[in-house]
């Protein structure tokens, strides 16, 4: 049966890969973005920002919702300003809460809807210069568990925590062969992630194969969050 999914932050390379996988299964994927979206979504909506809760109204029931917007704002702690903390929190965490609130009625029209959020390994693994982003993503992980509890058994809420993935957001960390080599060496699986590595977990969490999973944060990170080697 064809399902309806909504992606916020739909310009994301990971989002676009996940949309391809879902559309191959004949599902519909709607995209919301702060940028004009290229083809690849069944319907797309342009918005100004995520944290204010002004989202398009949809009449259809939603089978799933994914919130992609995120930042990688790395600075020594002494240089992080209140504006950095606020901006990272708004984009990474508050926007997700506002989005879920806005589309709750659409999700509740469905017997088994699924929400997927995207955190980062930095929420649970201490990394230098990640003061602001680790706080924002940890808030998102807290939201995952709180809403998982509040919405069970109707709506499942899960979260994926990647390490470095080769997307435009991470480009300045992987833009020379030396940087790529160093990051590859630091990862237990000796690999920088690809959008496809994360997209396949997103589609798993959206579909009924994961129907007994909720409130989980899944590290899809080449082992980086759990292993020392
Ligand atoms: N790439 C990595 O190494 C990595 C590692 C850990 C976690 N993640 C997470 O993965 C998610 C998807 O990112 P990606 O790697 O696929 O990156 P990407 O392809 O560069 O996409 C960037 C994403 O962030 C949003 N965004 C960027 N700047 C924004 C701003 N100023 N205000 C609001 N939204 C903004 C974009 O939304 P629009 O469509 O509205 O532009 C888009 O969803 C993010 O939550 C990120 O934190 C990525």
Provide an overview of this structure:
It contains six helices and seven strands. It has a seven-stranded parallel sheet, sandwiched between helices. Strand 1 (4-8), helix 1 (13-24) and strand 2 (28-33) form a beta-alpha-beta unit. It is an alpha/beta fold. The model has no long low-confidence stretch (mean pLDDT 96). It has one domain (4-166, 194-218): NAD(P)-binding Rossmann-like Domain (Rossmann fold, 3-Layer(aba) Sandwich), CATH 3.40.50.720. The radius of gyration is 17 Å and the shape is globular. Helix 1 (13-24) crosses helix 6 (195-206) and helix 2 runs parallel beside helix 4. 35% of the residues lie in helices and 16% in strands.
Quick gist of this model?
The chain has 229 residues and is an alpha/beta fold. The chain contains 6 helices and 7 strands, in the order βαβββααβαβααβ.
List keywords for this structure.
alpha/beta; 7 strands; 6 helices; Rossmann fold; about 15% strand; about 230 residues; seven-stranded parallel beta sheet; binds NADP nicotinamide-adenine-dinucleotide phosphate
Question: Which topology does CATH recognise?
Answer: Rossmann fold
Query: How does the major sheet shape up?
Result: 7 strands, parallel
Question: Approximately how much helix is present in the residues?
Answer: 25-40%
CATH top level? Answer: Alpha Beta
Global outline: globular
- CATH-wise, what's the superfamily? NAD(P)-binding Rossmann-like Domain
Q: Classify the secondary structure makeup into a structural class.
A: alpha/beta
């Amino acid at each position: 049966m064809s399902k309806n999914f909504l992606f916020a932050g739909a310009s994301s390379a990971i989002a676009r890969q996940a949309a391809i996988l879902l559309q191959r299964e004949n599902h519909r994927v709607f995209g919301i973005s702060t940028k004009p979206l290229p083809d690849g979504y069944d319907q797309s909506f342009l918005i100004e920002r995520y944290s204010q809760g002004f989202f398009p109204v949809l009449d259809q029931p939603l089978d799933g919702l994914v919130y992609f917007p995120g930042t990688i704002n790395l600075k020594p702690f002494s240089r992080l300003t209140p504006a950095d903390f606020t901006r990272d929190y708004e984009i990474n965490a508050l926007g997700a809460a506002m989005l879920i609130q806005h589309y709750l009625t659409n999700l509740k029209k469905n017997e088994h809807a699924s929400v997927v959020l995207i955190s980062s390994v930095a929420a649970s693994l201490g990394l230098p210069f990640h003061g602001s982003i680790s706080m924002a993503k940890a808030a998102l992980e807290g939201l995952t568990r709180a809403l998982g509890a509040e919405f069970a058994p109707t709506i499942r809420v899960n979260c994926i925590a990647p390490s470095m993935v080769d997307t435009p957001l991470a480009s300045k960390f992987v833009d020379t062969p030396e940087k790529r080599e160093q990051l590859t060496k630091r990862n237990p699986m000796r690999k920088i992630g690809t959008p496809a590595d994360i997209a396949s977990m997103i589609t798993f969490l959206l579909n009924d194969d994961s129907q007994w999973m909720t409130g989980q944060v899944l590290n899809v990170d080449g082992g980086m969050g759990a292993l020392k080697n």
